[in-house]
Amino acid sequence: MTLTVTRTLKLQQNLFSTRTLSLSLLKSLSSISRERKPEDQDRREFAEEAKTHNSNLLLVHENREILTMDLDDYTIIKEGEAEILMHNKNKVFFNKAQVHNRDLSIAVLRTFISKRKEEHEARLSRRTKPVKKASEKDASGSSKPAADNEKSNGECEEKVSEKDALGSAAEEVTNERAEDNEKLNGECEVPEEITEDRPCSLTEEQMMTTERKSQGVLEPPRVLEALSASGLRALRYAREVEGIGQVVALDNDKDSVEACRRNIKFNGSIAISKVESHLADARVYMLTHPKEFDVVDLDPYGSPSIFLDSAVQSVADGGLLMCTATDMAVLCGGNGEVCYSKYGSYPLRGKYCHEMALRILLASIESHANRYKRYIVPVLSVQIDFYVRVFVRIYTSASAMKNTPLKLSYVYQCIGCDSFHLQPIGRTISKNNSVRYLPGFGPAVPQECSDCGKKFNMGGPIWSAPIHDQEWVSSILGGVKCMKDRYPAYDHISAVLTSVSEELPDVPLFLSLHNLCATLKCTSPQAVIFRSAVINAGYRISGTHVNPLGLKSDAPMHVIWDIMRCWVKIHPVKAQAPDQPGSVILAKEPVLQANFARAVASLSKAQAKKVARFLPNPERHWGPKLRAGRQITSKHVSLLGPEAVNGHLNHENGEEEEPEAKRQKTEDVETPMSIS
Fold first, then answer.
1. Cα separation of 465 and 74, whole Å?
2. Which residues have CB under 8 Å from 358's CB, separation 6+?
3. Which residues pair with 411 in a beta bridge?
4. What are the counts of helices (DSSP H) followed by strands (DSSP E) for the chain?
5. What is the pTM of this model?
6. Which of 8, 151, 331, 522 could be a cystine partner for 357, CB 3.0 to 4.6 Å?
7. pLDDT one-digit tens code per residue, 301-336
């Protein structure tokens, strides 16, 4: 009986101490809020205090809403200026390696907002010029119409002046549409009802809206993150990008939406005011919101192909579509038939396969956009880590859409020497200020390779137009360097952007110097020597961000092989079988005599300054992670690493043992009570 009373008193004391601790935490939080400390500092101090006392985490917000949870089940992850609570059971997907993706997206989004503002100001300046000319013409006219106007204005001055202002605004917008056929985000649209008679008295809100539209005020860009998961990307957009508008985060998984809403509240008033989370199918949501978002971000787990059709409809004219594809095995030729079914293009397994993956994705987006009289303009396309990421602007124009066949090509790759040739799909003929669109001439190659005599594989179609806008790349890189402290992955994204800025923009795909030497079974020349030979022959050459050994050049393949023949004459090789591709190539005499003297432009500016362009992974197991909801087992060691797998398994074992211990304590307490 004494033992029972003692244990009962201990339980009551524990309950009393827990309630006292909760009250003390609430009091401390209220005192912190009264002192009005910075939002991040307030949240961090309270989380640390709750952790110290091993209690529940209480999140109190401006709307006095209280959210309780067990800190042992969550990990606080900070990236940039955003912090999220991640559940330990892999309920919601999160990959640390995607910090490169998120940082680069923020950099592009900042540049997009500044470019959008410049374009809007340029349109306003063009719009005011016709108005000035019209006013000068009216001033030089007779005074009688002016007197009539003064008389009519006396009857209902407010009404007529309002109608004139709105009518002129509508007329300007109509003229602008007729001139450009392209409408940018935020451009004012004048509704039909402004041409009708309306009462002289208007509400204040209607007057403000009308005034903003008539003045052409640029609204902040609206962003849609179609597949948000934890919401980290949307939170970083809202907290770090200046001048951004509403950010809509979607997901069709209940756990992900709950996690996103929890993280929105956890990040304070800025996130609460700008970010909203919805449980919805991204495809349906985008289809039901056509041209409503200035920026649409697609970052799926795998292929984005099923989202492209609705995404190109949801982006406003002149808006930005950011798209990621992680199914690199499909895009790089591992499953060509699957790639064709998803993207409408057949990949080839060459050294340039990762760049070809970028171009296949761009061609697929263009194909979906063309169905709605729209077309794309790529501003940045990169291959990073284990995925490709493209940033394209989308415009609407039935006439400009006709140029799409000029931007697409088929690729012929030799199965013997890996030489490749492009076959454009379309061509144009200009005559008497008119343009005719015709199919491209072909074939671009004979049945057998002219260099080694082997057959060709055919792939494509791919996007053969430029995949970057060099002006945009320079602006993005400059912005990143000016704000290096605000990018957690600054070193990596600045290295990628530096490599992109030095690429030849109008040369599709690239060569591999090591692959050329492997075909001939010869020693490899230094990249500087090979570059010099190409430059001395009168052609251009550059590196590529996709492969540190890749070389882009506008030199035709027969010139490349002539340079290699001259190199082999200086550095002889052993005799090979006569039917080998290398033997067939070396059996021909070079037409071009290569000059291997060091050229001035053989090194890029970054190489001359020894700027790092290809960095190693920040840590081991830096790559794709397990899909959310799947159970982590020992077979995922190669993917996640032994530490992460063992830590997760130990955590699960501890959870299994905990209920048994609790049951044992309960039995010890309840047994004496039943005896008494």
1. 47
2. 381, 382, 383, 388, 390, 463, 467, 546
3. 422, 459
4. 24, 19
5. 0.77
6. 331
7. 889 999 999 999 999 999 999 999 999 999 999 999
